[in-house]
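Running co-folding for zinc ion.
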Amino acid sequence: MNYDELLDRAFTKLPTLSKENVDFRIPVIDSIIQGNKTVVRNITQIADVARRSKAEIIKYLTKELAAPIGIDDQILVINAKVAQNILNAKITKYFETYVICKECHKPDTRVEGIERGYITTVCEACGARYTLKNY
Ligand SMILES: [Zn+2]
């Protein structure tokens, strides 16, 4: 079994999110469609809650949405019409995959390193460390 397969196995065995995690809510996207573009007005808040840089979240969304994304001051501009529920689903997936700790379910992870297509995060609440495929 190679390294990729081991990681995939480790990933599929991870527990699903617990409903006990009531003190934290994944932020909701504040977006509007303007012409052929979609404007997200609270990317700064989302990045703050995720404790990730805006650049990292933009990179993730660019890949997920397969659309170019720019940032103008605090405003994210997606060069495509994207419904708010789709954006929310993407952000929820981002938090569940990359931000919320799979051991203690707290959103207290930080990126420790990114190497060769893999991202390593460490939970500051419980110390758990995960290596996931990077986006
Ligand atoms: Zn943890």
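Result summary
The pocket of zinc ion is lined by residues 101, 103-104, 106, 123, 125-126, 128 (CB under 6 Å).
The radius of gyration is 16 Å.
Job closed.
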